[in-house]
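Severity: low
Component: inverse-folding endpoint
Summary: output formatting inconsistent between runs
Steps to reproduce: submit the following structure tokens with default settings.
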């Protein structure tokens, strides 16, 4: 069975003009992520990982280079087609969750189906089953303000996965969680990525969370400086102090 790359970037560069000259936030980054693979993108503050994630999410256009999702080159799409691709092919979880406060947990998840005109009986059932899989079966009708940070993050994960995207991106998903909840959230997230055969990328500052990923991509000064795919190397990194 041939593994398909859900995501591929080719020599991606993003530059900005500043008072001191041209700044390369992302500098010639090429990478691939296969379906069913969960990858961590790590690096110090200012390394370019957040800019890179925004480019992968089709929220930011690179200065040059290519980003392909399911083989579709984003640079060849107009704004309308980019929005459609982002809505259909990409799932995104934000550090702050960005749940709609006046919608219940299940309604927040169903929102992605509604936006894609796929909110049918089967979709509603799938939303409930996914939340139950995430341990929120008794919280379906709770509003975000009635849930803990970890519970809200799990709703956000369900929302990112419900429309069967090819690529799932997570921006610091554990930043507001205690260690125990962080481990639970990332372990569950990794399990769903593998189980549903999605390509997943998590930006994280917490190296302990790398325990649950298949590869670690390390960025520094806008460049992809190292790729760890050996389990022993990843375990060593995840046991390092932050």
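Observed output (run 2 of 3):
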């Amino acid at each position: 069975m041939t593994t398909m790359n859900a995501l591929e970037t080719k020599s991606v560069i993003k530059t900005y003009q500043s008072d001191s000259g041209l700044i390369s936030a992302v500098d010639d980054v090429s990478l691939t992520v296969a379906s069913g693979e969960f990858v961590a993108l790590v690096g110090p503050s200012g390394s370019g990982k957040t800019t890179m994630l925004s480019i992968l999410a089709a929220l930011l256009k690179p200065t040059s280079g290519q980003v392909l999702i399911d083989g579709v080159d984003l640079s060849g799409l107009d704004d309308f087609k980019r929005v459609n691709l982002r809505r259909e092919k990409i799932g995104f979880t934000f550090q702050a969750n960005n749940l709609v406060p006046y919608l219940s947990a299940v309604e927040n998840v169903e929102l992605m189906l509604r936006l894609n005109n796929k909110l049918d009986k089967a979709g509603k059932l799938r939303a409930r089953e996914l939340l139950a899989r995430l341990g929120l079966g008794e919280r379906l009708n709770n509003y975000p303000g009635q849930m803990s940070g970890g519970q809200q993050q799990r709703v956000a994960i369900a929302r990112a996965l419900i429309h069967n995207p090819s690529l799932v991106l997570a921006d610091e998903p554990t930043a507001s969680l205690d260690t125990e909840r962080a481990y639970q959230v990332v372990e569950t997230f990794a399990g769903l990525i593998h189980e549903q055969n999605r390509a997943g990328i998590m930006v994280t500052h917490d190296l302990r969370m790398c325990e649950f990923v298949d590869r670690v991509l390390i960025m520094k000064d806008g460049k992809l400086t190292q790729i760890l795919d050996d389990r022993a190397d990843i375990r060593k990194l995840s046991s390092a102090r932050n």
